[in-house]
Write a structure and sequence with these properties.
heterodimer, A: 378 residues, alpha+beta, Rossmann fold, OB fold (Dihydrolipoamide Acetyltransferase, E2P), 2 domains, B: 672 residues, four-stranded antiparallel β-sheet
């Protein structure tokens, strides 16, 4: 470790309490509520992503944590210190913006060392630290170049090096990859994640790209209309969505209208399906949701009953070839006009001889079948 | 996991009152100081002037009572009003005066003779009035007795009240309000001619492939470098009573509307050209390709593509020209003759008649068209910005020999007009005595033997220009930075923005007069700067604040919005960021601001005409004063000195900018 990094004693006391404790944050711009009473704990060394559509309040949330746009009410504690009202300069964080905000007239070296100056650090140590950082982000020997002489991906990494130069306790990334093209983005995703693990720095990243969040985050905070809809690991968010919004925003999801029959069953067309336990009142209209990859295909059931448990016969309406799999659209009189999408591997399609116009049987596993309140959809 | 969206029945979370950082406090202090500057240098003087225009001074004759003793005892007390009525001495409008007006008490005694033995007594009925015995002011209500010899030294002072009487007087004096008509006529006519000529010139520059474009551009910019009254002098040499080609006018005098319009077209031309060229240059080549593919005739293309694309530019240029002409003072002063215009009226009222209140009234009247033109122009300019699309393809003119030749001859004609007037001035300056002795000499440059301030006025001008460029650039750029880059202080910032935009709408004469009222007031502690170089610098910086401010704001807007956030996250103070990044990146714009201020400080007449003292006479004012005194050749010579100084300043500016661009090329060029 370099001589510049902070002493490690702070982590002792924070073992039981979270590193960052945000409670009941509200941010208003005039009458508009950008952030509505949100709370969040972040553990030391964790990588958390704020995920949501544009205008959901995720950037507002990040800027409140940074002190750039301080919240109207609610508290932020970092390493057991209440920093709610502190200006950014009195907080401990590094930040990377979507635009990188690199100083155009300063060389890479001067950009990275900007935060190290005026800190009574000997010049030779600064130089050493800069070299070390550039090595770390994979851009050694570039210190005399200007930002405009670097590619977008390289600029992004310089911005990252500048943000971590002072070894901040918290690293904030505001859509750091969205200005880059797809290939560079995929590569940098991995790079940033590796770097974060190596440094063990607590990190919050804002993104609207679900793939980015799923691949990079330890935990994802899904935000919608100024509120948090769900917090969980990527698999939790994907496999156990708590709201229709989360289910819809992350991954693909079949959504058909149905009606609640009991706390564990629901009617779809003339079918009655077992589903996950829910708390909606009996008789209420509901949205039935299942992911395309969770629908299990079978050979057509040949007996007279159209339905046994959650299995029933359907007609293959359309097939769309998407390279690694087929996207198959299903319908049937039983569904009364509703369509279901199922993703099937090429092998299964060949084995089962599935083609448009054929009939197959499908099984909707009850624990993969969700029922949501349509009212919460907005 | 605990629920993250807290339920509604909890007590509200604590409100957060953000703690300000050291940076915040420093920036608040800085914005306050610069805001205070604008309040003192702009808002307060204008307010003082406005209130002055509503101050009336009237000799209230009912307030004074007189008694006479011709040796046979005191007569009955009789008021000044009664005497005036019975003897019909003064008409009611003769009683309206300015605050400095004085009325001799002897006016009421036509048979007065200071050698007589007659004694006079007078008193006032209330303490609001006063009269002077010599210089001694008497404001009580006692009777005072004076022998005739002393009575002749008594003058009555007017009593002051506020109201719209000054305006009533103004609008009931045909000689005064006729100027409104004259000013509007000249301004509108000039606007039509200038915008038409400038459009043709701009069209030739952007739509043809004629040769010498650079040279034409340069020639068109020349008028910016000279005072607006210089073309007036050239016109006198051409068409004056002893003019070289006065026959061209068929006996019409150049002194008057003709001269004002020609000279105004000269000095407003570059301003219109810049705006219209910009408007034409941003037009989208794809529209022209579409027009060609739809087989539209060139004539139709011109009216459906070119004109609509440039319309905001044309409107904007019209208002700018209108404003320049209606507020200009130097040119109508030199060549206007008996033709009165508003800006000159202010000068005549203040300098000629010492009627400051009426000067203030004319100023307010002049403010109305100037303010409206400014407001409409701002509105239109906002629209034009929205019109530019980042996907526009710039238009590349194709070669067309016939069209290019027409453009070339047209531009050459305009260039000859502009450069010709300047050459005539230089010629006039070098001739011994037009038209009798045509030998060349430098005698006209011997300014020290002329009225107007001599060579020291030239050095004063350079001093003023340098000081204005230096302090103005500092104040303007720092002020713009504060407005653009601070968070919070929303009210202060929008108030500041408003004040920064205002000078553009304020005619120089109005600003200068407002400065007299404000800084020359005996109770103002800042009055010490009156009559010094400081007030000239303050006035000039303020007068040209808006364009400088807009230049700075445009440059600052191009900086990444997050620089300040990054710096504060790295715990670096804002002034380090300002010095290391903001200023270097904006340096070209900073240099532009300083040369703009320098050139304008060299040429300005209107604002400073009321404020210079014998020690701080300026070259531009010397031109006017020498012309006034009939020393026209020396006036031309001094005008040319201003021109050459500005040319040199611009060359230095060009050289420095080139050098800067070269040394910073590595980071200024984008390689993507």
């Amino acid at each position: 470790m370099s001589a510049l990094s902070k002493d490690e004693t702070t982590s002792e006391t924070t073992k039981n309490t979270p590193f960052l404790r945000i409670s009941r944050l509200t941010k208003k711009f005039g009458d508009f509520v950008a952030l509505n009473d949100v709370s969040l704990d972040v553990n030391e060394g964790e990588f958390v992503c704020f995920l949501g559509p544009s205008g959901c309040g995720k950037t507002t949330f990040l800027r409140a944590i940074a002190g750039l746009d301080i919240q109207t009410s609610g508290t932020v504690e970092q390493a057991n210190v209440d920093i709610s009202a502190l200006p950014p300069s009195e907080r401990d964080f590094g930040i990377v913006f979507q635009s990188y905000a690199l100083f155009p007239n300063l060389t890479v070296e001067k950009n990275v060392s900007f935060g190290l100056e005026n800190q009574k650090i000997p010049r030779s140590d600064i130089k050493k630290r800069v070299d070390e950082l550039l090595e770390l982000v994979g851009l050694p020997e570039q210190e005399t170049k200007f930002p405009s002489q670097l590619s977008g991906g390289q600029q992004q990494r310089i911005a990252l090096a500048r943000a971590i130069a002072t070894s901040p306790g918290l690293l904030l990334l505001d859509e750091p990859l969205s200005a880059l093209d797809a290939k560079v983005r995929a590569y940098l995703r991995h790079e940033i994640k590796t770097l974060q693990r190596r440094l063990g720095v607590t990190t919050i990243m804002v993104t609207h790209d679900q793939e980015e969040a799923l691949t990079m985050a330890d935990r994802i905070v899904v935000m919608n209309q100024g509120a948090i809809d769900q917090i969980g690991t990527p698999t939790e968010i994907y496999r156990e969505p708590k709201t229709l919004f989360v289910a819809d925003f992350i991954g693909a999801m079949n959504q058909v209208k149905g009606r609640v029959v009991s706390s564990s069953s629901v009617s779809l067309g003339s079918l009655e399906l077992k589903c996950r336990d829910h708390e909606l009142p009996v008789g209420q209209e509901a949205v039935i949701a299942i992911r395309p990859e969770d629908i299990v295909p079978h050979k057509k059931i040949e007996n007279s009953s159209p339905q046994s448990g959650n299995s029933f016969n359907v007609k293959v309406e359309e097939m769309e070839f998407l390279g690694s799999f087929w996207r198959v659209q299903l319908s049937d009189e039983l569904l009364e006009g509703a369509h279901l999408i199922v993703d099937l591997s090429i092998n299964i399609v060949l084995q089962m001889n599935i083609d448009a116009g054929n009939q197959i049987s499908i099984d909707l596993p009850p624990d993969r079948l969700w029922v949501f309140n349509p009212a919460s959809e907005e | 996991m605990a629920s993250f969206n807290t339920s509604k029945n909890l007590p509200p979370a604590p409100k957060i009152h953000p703690k300000s950082s050291r940076d915040d406090r420093m920036m608040a202090g800085a914005i306050f100081v610069i805001g205070l500057y604008l309040v003192i240098a702009l808002a307060l003087p204008l307010y003082t002037m406005l209130s002055k225009s509503f101050t009336t001074a009237v000799f209230n004759l009912q307030n004074y009572e007189f008694q006479v003793n011709k040796g046979d005892g005191w007569s009955e007390p009789v008021s000044g009003y009664q005497i005036n009525e019975s003897l019909s001495l003064l008409k009611p409008d003769e009683l309206i005066t300015s605050s400095d007006g004085r009325l001799a008490a002897t006016t009421f005694f036509p048979d007065f003779n200071f050698r007589s033995k007659t004694e006079y007594r007078l008193r006032q009925l209330d303490e609001n009035g006063s009269f002077l015995v010599g210089t001694q002011r008497i404001a009580d209500t006692e009777w005072h007795t004076y022998p005739a010899n002393k009575f002749r030294r008594i003058v009555l002072r007017p009593s002051q009240s506020s109201g719209i009487d000054n305006y009533i007087t103004y609008f009931s004096t045909p000689a005064l309000f006729r100027s409104i008509q004259n000013s509007l006529f000249i301004s509108i006519l000039t606007t039509l001619i200038t915008v038409g000529l400038a459009f043709g010139f701009a069209y030739a520059l952007t739509r043809s492939r004629m040769p010498f474009k650079g040279g034409f551009r340069l020639a068109a910019m020349v008028p910016i470098l000279v005072p607006s009254l210089l073309p007036g002098i050239a016109l006198v040499y051409l068409f004056g009573n002893q003019g070289m080609i006065k026959e061209v006018l068929f006996g019409e005098p150049i002194y008057g509307p003709i001269g004002i319009v020609i000279g105004s077209v000269f000095f407003t031309f570059p301003h219109a050209l810049i705006i219209i060229t910009t408007a034409l240059a941003i037009s989208d080549a794809r529209l022209y390709e579409a027009a060609v593919s739809l087989r539209a005739s060139p004539w139709k293309t011109f009216w459906t593509v070119t004109i609509p694309g440039a319309r905001y530019g044309l409107i904007s240029a019209s208002f700018v020209v209108f404003n320049l002409v209606i507020t200009d003072f130097g040119l109508p002063k030199v060549i206007g003759g008996q033709y009165n215009m508003l800006a000159v009226d202010i000068y005549k009222q203040v300098i000629g008649q010492q009627n400051f209140e009426m000067g203030a009234v004319v100023s307010v009247v002049l403010l109305i068209p100037a303010l409206s033109a400014f407001t409409i122009d701002r509105y239109v300019q906002k629209k034009q910005v929205a019109q530019i699309s980042s996907r526009s393809v710039p238009y590349e003119p194709k070669s067309n020999r016939k069209f290019d030749m027409i453009c070339f001859f047209y531009c050459a004609l305009v260039a000859v007009f502009i450069v010709g007037l300047i050459i005539i001035c230089q010629y006039a300056a070098l001739i011994k005595l037009w038209p009798y002795n045509l030998n060349l000499s430098l005698a006209n440059y011997n300014f020290d033997v002329m009225d107007g301030g001599g060579w020291s006025s030239y050095y004063n001008s350079i001093k003023l220009a340098l000081l204005t460029a230096l302090t103005g650039t500092l104040v303007v750029f720092f002020g713009a930075y504060m407005v653009e880059k601070t968070n919070g202080f929303l009210f202060t910032r929008s108030a500041f923005q408003f004040l920064a935009m205002m000078p553009m709408a304020i005619p120089g004469m109005v600003l200068g007069l407002a400065y007299i009222f404000f800084f020359n007031h005996p109770d103002n502690p800042l009055g010490t700067i009156y009559g010094t170089m400081v007030i000239l610098v303050v006035c000039t910086v303020t007068h040209f604040y808006t364009v400088s401010h807009l230049t700075a704001v445009t440059a600052l807007k191009q900086m990444d919005r997050e620089f300040e956030a990054v710096a504060s996250s790295l715990k670096q103070p804002f002034y380090k960021l300002f010095a290391k990044v903001t200023v270097p990146v904006c340096m070209p714009s900073i240099l532009d601001i300083s040369i703009y201020l320098f050139v304008n400080a060299m040429t300005t007449v209107s604002a400073v005409i009321f404020l210079y003292s014998p020690d701080t006479a300026l070259a531009s004012i010397a031109v006017m004063n020498m012309d006034d005194a009939g020393d026209i050749a020396p006036a031309a010579a001094m005008g040319m000195m201003i021109f050459y100084t500005n040319v040199i300043a611009r060359l230095i500016h060009l050289f420095v900018t080139r050098k800067l661009m070269k040394s910073t090329q590595a980071w200024r060029t984008r390689q993507r």
